[in-house]
């Protein structure tokens, strides 16, 4: 299965395919393609000198039950930066990032807001990795065992994660003799939900929370299941009506092309797909859908490299590629040019491997959390 994010999803409108409703997250192809995954791996797993120090905390497996293995422990990773901290004697604050679904280094290296504001507040920066992600794997750090079945994955939940954060923060403050230093938690997306919930559930630990892009009430039965894709549709449609129509019509176009003699080879060549025995219209459509969705999710006003290297306003760039006269009336070429903004903005990729199941950001447990509603 593919990597997803926390939202209820019914694919419709711009992504006009047979209706599939998922409780909490869009099911997408893996990202990114292997053509760029090596670069992402190197970037997200490399320590940046001076940015943080890596530490580990002995965390309890189960905070709420008294089963035989409840007292088992695992090593939970956290990153710390005390460059700007005013110290315990001054009751200087502690900013804590409530890690979400992935390698904590990846999030730390893309969370400039905390680093930008730490000097003004003389804050200590702490980034805590979520259990079952990155290097914070229970059961001896063995992912095969940790992800084996429900008896082990049952310990992967937001409730347990919040208790982890509380235990680590309290212990850290004690060790720093900083029991009077106020704590503010930060997070984005699922991490933002965790930050908000943490403030609600542990008000004695954190005096405040900053939750960015945090759909804390976005659960089945509480909001429209169409809202996520509605917003993405509007992102593209607001740039260009033609752009919207080309993408909406692409699913029928790809299916019709695939059913024609030589159609699959035409699709492979047009979209620069690496040789694959499993290449088909479904895999191609999933690959394109991932590009549209992830680009809309990272449609920042400045260049970024959170998921893939992207220019500023990448949705606008995609629509410009679709509306360009260079490709004439060739809609397949227009779609490739747009997808290339997401998958190959650096121009380094020569082909795209749709069979790549790499997980450069250690997101492996996310589908389990989606299925069990976090």
What do you see in this structure?
- This protein is of the alpha/beta class and 374 residues long.
- The chain folds into two domains: 52-212, 3-Layer(aba) Sandwich (Rossmann fold), CATH 3.40.50.1820; 226-360, Four Helix Bundle (Hemerythrin (Met), subunit A).
- Helices cover 40% and strands 11% of the residues.
- It is built from 15 helices and eight strands.
- The strands form two sheets. The chain has a six-stranded mixed β-sheet. It has a two-stranded antiparallel sheet with strand order 1-2.
- Helix 7 (190-201) links the parallel strand 7 and strand 8 (208-212).
- Helix 6 crosses helix 7, helix 9 (241-248) packs across helix 13 (314-323) and helix 12 (281-297) crosses helix 14.
- The longest helix is centred in the middle third of the chain and has 18 residues, at 158-175.
- It is elongated, with a radius of gyration of 22 Å.
- Keywords: Carboxypeptidase, Glycoprotein, Hydrolase, Protease, Signal.
- Belongs to the peptidase S28 family.
- Pfam families: Peptidase_S28.
- GO terms for molecular function: carboxypeptidase activity; dipeptidyl-peptidase activity; serine-type exopeptidase activity.
């Amino acid at each position: 299965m593919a990597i997803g994010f926390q939202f209820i999803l019914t694919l419709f409108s711009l992504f006009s395919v047979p209706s599939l409703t998922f409780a909490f997250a869009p099911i997408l192809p893996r990202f990114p393609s292997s053509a760029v995954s090596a670069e992402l791996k190197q970037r997200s797993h490399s320590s940046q000198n001076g940015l943080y120090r890596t530490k580990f905390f002995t965390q309890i497996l189960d905070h709420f039950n008294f089963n035989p293995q409840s007292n088992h422990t695992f090593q939970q990773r956290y990153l710390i930066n005390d460059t700007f901290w005013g110290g315990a004697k001054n009751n200087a604050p502690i900013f804590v990032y409530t890690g979400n679904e992935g390698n904590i280094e990846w999030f730390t290296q893309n969370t400039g807001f905390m680093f930008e504001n730490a000097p003004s507040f003389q804050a200590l920066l702490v980034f805590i990795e979520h259990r079952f992600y990155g290097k914070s794997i229970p059961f001896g750090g063995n992912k095969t065992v940790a992800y084996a079945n429900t008896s082990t994955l049952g310990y992967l939940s937001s409730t347990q994660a919040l208790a982890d954060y509380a235990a680590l923060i309290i212990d850290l403050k004690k060790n720093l003799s900083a029991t009077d230093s106020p704590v503010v938690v930060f997070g984005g997306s699922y991490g933002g939900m965790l930050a908000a919930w943490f403030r609600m559930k542990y008000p004695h630990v954190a005096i405040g929370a900053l939750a960015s892009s945090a759909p804390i009430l976005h659960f089945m039965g509480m909001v429209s299941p169409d809202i996520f894709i509605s917003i993405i549709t509007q992102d593209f449609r607001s740039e260009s009506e033609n752009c919207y129509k080309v993408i909406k019509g692409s699913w029928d176009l790809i299916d019709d092309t695939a059913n024609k003699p030589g159609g699959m080879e035409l699709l492979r060549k047009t979209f620069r797909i690496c040789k694959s025995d499993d290449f088909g219209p479904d895999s191609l459509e999933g690959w394109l859908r991932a590009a549209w969705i992830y680009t809309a999710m990272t449609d920042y006003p400045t260049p970024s490299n959170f998921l893939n290297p992207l220019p500023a306003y990448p949705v606008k760039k995609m629509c410009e590629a679709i509306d360009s006269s260079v490709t004439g009336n060739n809609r397949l070429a227009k779609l490739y040019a747009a997808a290339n903004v997401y998958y190959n903005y650096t121009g380094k990729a020569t082909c795209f491997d749709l069979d790549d199941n790499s997980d450069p950001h250690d997101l492996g447990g996310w589908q389990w959390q989606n299925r069990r509603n976090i």
